[in-house]
């Protein structure tokens, strides 16, 4: 087999491979010899079928198998011999001329093909103990725990029917019919709907207009849907709701005690508070970690500047772009609605794709050098969590798909591996904790969350560079 490098430019490589016809012939003969003792043909005793007869019957199909083996084995061996890691599966090109292909299968011509691929660049990992991170830490207060306990208790609160007018905190049972420009709209009608005044479950201005109504009253409520309302056909529209009050019920006194805790399946009010505190600390802890991770990845982004494989960047950009355009379409919006243009959005997401790929390669290299591993148990837990998002009747099918599809499993492993590498880096970086208020911890959290998952929507024209720079999803 003759191997010739025909392109070596930057990260791009092309290799031409020629397998002489005599090599193909020797492989074919070996396969025919092996089949001779196994094949059963009418008129021949076992093991006595002439090779010439086997060649006439199976020559081309066996040669096709030989060619496929060469493609698979040689691609891997060539890369190993060259000491190169391809960024993606090499692209194999061979003749599309049927006559030439027939000659190869008949053993009358050399088999030639080429491999085109990009290599993963050599990355020299720098000392990351010097990375400085200021980790914002927030201590959950007793008052926050009490407020959350009250909200939980309110969710199981009981109500007693009353004859008087509805007040703030009362539960009002209503029938309603929503209209825009005098026409009823889909999803705008319901019967026996319970509305607790002050819970803000309906669009702004709706619940407040129920105050003062009593059972049997009818009223037309006028409201305006928010400009950012999820249903694009209703967003920003003025609407009227014809209301009929069925009954009004007052909330019973809210008492936080062991009896309430038992309604929630817990043994005591103290246990309820303990669980709530743990949930809040975990919630704010995730925010803390996310901000620390963002600082870490920003530091790595500053440290490592290298050419990223073009094909990987293309694939990452396409993933982002498909999500962006799909989300805009679902919301009934355009790039102009997001104060940008398609060209500007493409430029921004291209930069983001390049950053993601570079950081992904850096994290992969660090993980490899630090011996980071994702255990089978961790994979199994994550796989089960993913499957549980699907309807129960589909879960076994989804599970089988993942277990039989290495690439799908790789998509489960990638975020687990990334988080473990981040943990490894944070354990060795120069991390200083800084006590902050709740407001400080959550400041700009919406913008930063948008930057972390930039696929959600197109960016505002005023801040694309800032948001793209913060994005920290390095998958």
Automatic annotation (TrEMBL):
What are this entry's molecular-function GO terms? peptidyl-prolyl cis-trans isomerase activity; protein folding chaperone; ribosome binding
> Which superkingdom does the taxonomy of this entry point to?
Bacteria
What biological-process GO terms show up in the record?
'de novo' cotranslational protein folding; cell division; protein transport; protein unfolding
What is the main EC category here? isomerase
Specify the PPIase FKBP-type domain's residue ranges: 169-264
Record's comment describing the protein's domains: Consists of 3 domains; the N-terminus binds the ribosome, the middle domain has PPIase activity, while the C-terminus has intrinsic chaperone activity on its own.
Q: Which NCBIfam families match?
A: tig (TIGR00115)
Name the protein family: Belongs to the FKBP-type PPIase family. Tig subfamily.
What this chain does, per the entry, is described as:
Involved in protein export. Acts as a chaperone by maintaining the newly synthesized protein in an open conformation. Functions as a peptidyl-prolyl cis-trans isomerase.
Q: What is the protein name given in its UniProt record? A: Trigger factor
Quick one: which gene encodes this? tig
């Amino acid at each position: 087999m003759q191997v010739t490098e025909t392109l070596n430019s930057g990260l791009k490589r092309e290799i031409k491979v020629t397998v002489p016809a005599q090599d193909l012939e020797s492989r074919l003969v070996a396969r025919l010899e092996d089949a001779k003792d196994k094949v059963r043909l009418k008129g021949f005793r076992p093991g006595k079928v002439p090779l010439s007869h086997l060649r006439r019957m199976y020559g081309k199909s066996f040669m096709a198998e030989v060619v496929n083996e060469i493609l698979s084995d040689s691609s891997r061996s060539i890369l190993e011999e060259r000491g190169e890691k391809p960024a993606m599966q090499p692209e194999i090109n061979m003749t599309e001329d049927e006559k030439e292909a027939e000659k190869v299968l008949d053993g009358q011509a050399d088999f030639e093909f080429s491999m085109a691929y990009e290599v993963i660049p050599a990355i020299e990992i720098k000392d990351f103990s010097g990375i400085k991170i200021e980790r914002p830490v927030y201590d959950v207060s007793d008052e926050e725990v009490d407020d959350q306990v009250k909200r939980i208790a309110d969710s199981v609160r009981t109500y007693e029917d009353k004859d008087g007018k509805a007040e703030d905190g009362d539960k009002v049972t209503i029938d309603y019919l929503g209209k825009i420009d005098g026409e009823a709209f889909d999803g705008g009608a319901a019967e026996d709907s319970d509305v607790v005044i002050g819970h803000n479950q309906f669009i702004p201005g709706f619940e407040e207009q129920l105050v003062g109504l009593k059972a049997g009253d009818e009223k037309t409520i006028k409201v305006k849907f928010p400009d950012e309302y999820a249903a694009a056909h209703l967003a920003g529209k003025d609407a009227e709701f014809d209301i009929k009050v069925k009954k009004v019920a007052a909330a019973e006194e809210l008492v936080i005690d062991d009896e309430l805790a038992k309604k929630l399946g817990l043994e005591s009010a103290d246990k309820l508070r303990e669980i709530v505190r743990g949930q809040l600390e975990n919630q704010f802890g995730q925010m803390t970690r996310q901000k620390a991770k963002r600082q870490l990845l920003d530091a790595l982004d500053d440290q490592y500047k290298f050419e990223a494989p073009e094909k990987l960047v293309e694939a990452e950009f396409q993933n982002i772009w498909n999500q962006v355009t799909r989300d805009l379409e679902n919301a009934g919006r355009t790039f102009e609605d997001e104060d940008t243009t398609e060209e500007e959005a493409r430029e921004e997401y291209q930069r983001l794709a390049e950053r993601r790929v570079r950081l992904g390669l850096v994290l992969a290299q660090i993980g490899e050098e630090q011996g980071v591993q994702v255990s089978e148990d961790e994979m199994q837990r994550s796989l089960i969590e993913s499957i549980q998002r699907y309807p129960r009747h589909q879960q076994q099918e989804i599970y089988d798909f993942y277990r039989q599809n290495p690439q799908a499993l790789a998509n489960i492993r990638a975020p687990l591996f990334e988080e473990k590498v981040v943990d490894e880096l944070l354990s060795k970086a120069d991390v200083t904790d800084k006590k902050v208020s709740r407001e400080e911890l959550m400041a700009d959290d919406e913008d930063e969350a948008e930057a972390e998952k930039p696929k959600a929507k197109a960016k505002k024209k005023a801040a694309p560079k800032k948001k793209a720079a913060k994005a920290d999803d390095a998958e």
